[in-house]
Amino acid sequence: MNSTSEKQRLKSSKRQLATVIDLNKCMGCQSCTVACKNIWTQRPGTEHMRWANVGTYPGRGYPRDWQSKGGGYDKQGRALQGQLINIVDAGDNLQFNHDEVLNHEDGQNARLEPRSADGQTAKWGYNWDEDQASGKWPNAFFFYLPRKCNHCSNAPCIDACSRNAISKRDDGVVLIDQDRCTGHRHCVEACPYKMIYFNPATKRSEKCIECFPRIDKGIAPACNRQCVGRTRAYGYLDDKDSQVYKLVRQWKVALPLHPEYGTEPNVYYVPPMSTYAYDSDGRLTDDMRIPLEVLEQYFGPAVHQALATLVAQRQQRKDGNPSQLMDILISKVWQDRFSEFTNEPV
After folding, report:
1. Which CA distances in Å does 93 have to 120, 209, 275, 317?
2. 58 φ, ψ to 5°?
């Protein structure tokens, strides 16, 4: 078997699991981040890793400046050169002088001073720019963007791995075989979303595993299940009864992040509609504060039609008429969001 056909085999799957996240409901509470970190990254070498994370956008994001570090494919399907991320980019392992501030009766003079893992003054940390707005007064704006591995249908990490250690399961989940991985980190460079991290303790690459021990038992991934705002839907893209199918395929209001990267990602977003903007006289207008060109940079040109559909269906509900789309997005019954993955965690 030649290398090309072997890579195609590693990237193939019978079905594809996907997540949809409604950015109109995400409030940046970090419940998904904490749920993931408590389960999967409590081991030596994972202190800097947040397989699930929520950033404030437009912004530098997490890992820092990930959108400018390359990877993915060009329009002709050719691999693009990517860059490595370091521990500081990935949030560092900040240490705080809690004992000095809290336990030595010097609280009036001592101040919390974060230090990096090597004891130096911290230069960056997770959500360093949290809640920093873009735009100009009085029309400042930002939105929260939860991220995790996209378990891409055309995963560049699989193509880049020199050890064939990365592959898809039949349900579309992309995993790294820790026994085969030798830490070359070509996968880190290749991923344009920078959702793969290097563990300096094990000398291996690690990433989101989609909580596959949970989904094998009919339980939704922790980041999705623990979302307190019911922002997320989960299921198979070919399941016409699932909210994932209806939002992505039927209504076409859930869009991939940076589709131009050519990876066919399987985390989809309902774009934020934002609040209304003020004019120069301080009067509310019918324009949204978040400029459409900003959203197009993230979600591509399809964002225009998606927003138009959302506005029309919201107005339909306001007029007292039924709207299946609004019922899906409101989601009064949480089980409806997770298709067949509604079993209780043990």
Report:
1. 11, 22, 36, 47
2. -65, 140
Instruction: Identify the band that residue 1 occupies on the pLDDT scale cut at 50, 70 and 90.
Output: low
Ordered by start, the domain boundaries in the chain are 3-91+126-338, 92-125
Residue 103 and residue 81: Cα distance in Å, rounded?
A: 50
Mean pLDDT of 309-324: 97
Fold of 3-91+126-338: Alpha-Beta Plaits (3.30.70)
Contact (CB, 8 A) for 222 and 229: no
Angle ∠(75,263,43) on CA atoms, nearest 5: 145
Burial of residue 165 (CB within 10 Å: 0-12, 13-18, 19+) is: buried
Residue 51: DSSP 8-state: S
pLDDT at 102 > cutoff 90:
no
Cα separation of 163 and 184, whole Å? Answer: 9
Cβ atoms 211, 325 nearer than 8 A = no
